[in-house]
Predict the 3D structure of the following.
Amino acid sequence: MTAQRQALPEPLSGLREPAVVELPPGRPWMAISELNRLIRQQGQARALARAWVLDQLVRAIPLPAGEEKDLMGTFLQRRGVNADEQVPAWLASRGLTFEDLRILATQEQRLQRLCRRRWGAEVEVRFLQRKPALDQVVYSLLRLESEELAAELHQQIAEGEADFPELAPLHSSGPERHSRGQIGPVSLAAGHQTLVGRLRRGRQGELFDPFQAGASWVVLRLEQLLPASLDEANRNLMLRELFNTWLEQRVDTLLEGQPLPALDAMLALLEEDGNP
């Protein structure tokens, strides 16, 4: 299928309805010109563009009718709407249409389906690129003002005379003084680079010689290294990151006033599933 350019919305003219914004549903609140001014003043143009791009995308992603009906039913039940006759009033009170309900209830499932088909083959490469930031670590730490104190406390720990839980509240200058000297699990890439290098190549239980990191002298012990694996949670995370990168590129195109690439080629992948 040949991908065509998706045209931008035409400039609005000759509106039959007043060009106003409703905040409480059904009550005119603000002129469109005032809304435009606030959008730019408060830096909300990107958020609005992203919402429009996402809405257009979700509406275009097919979903089997039975699955859609079940998701809508679950969505309403979780909000205390248990009978069909309650739906119109629930929608009216929120200024929503039935189409809004359909999108709200099924958006996540539609996006998951698209992500699996479009970016599923790219997940492993993305994971390998992101793994250094996904690996986690638990370590014990003292941040100290002088090299002499760092050497003294390091020796006490090495010889078993004292340990991090008792020393951190007394001597450490960082927030670890409130957690008995222990930090984590945290991303291995989140710490100071002088810490990260040691932790990445260290052995569990290894007590490192005192070293300087920024303005502090540090006593450090690696407690546990928790390498990330490509489990279901990380697989979904990689899919969502790949999707968000694509989505933000599409938002950039819209904000630049350029025609959006059509969704035909992407949606054709979903037709291969054999579902409507």
User: Anything to note?
Assistant: DSSP finds eleven helices and eight strands in the chain.
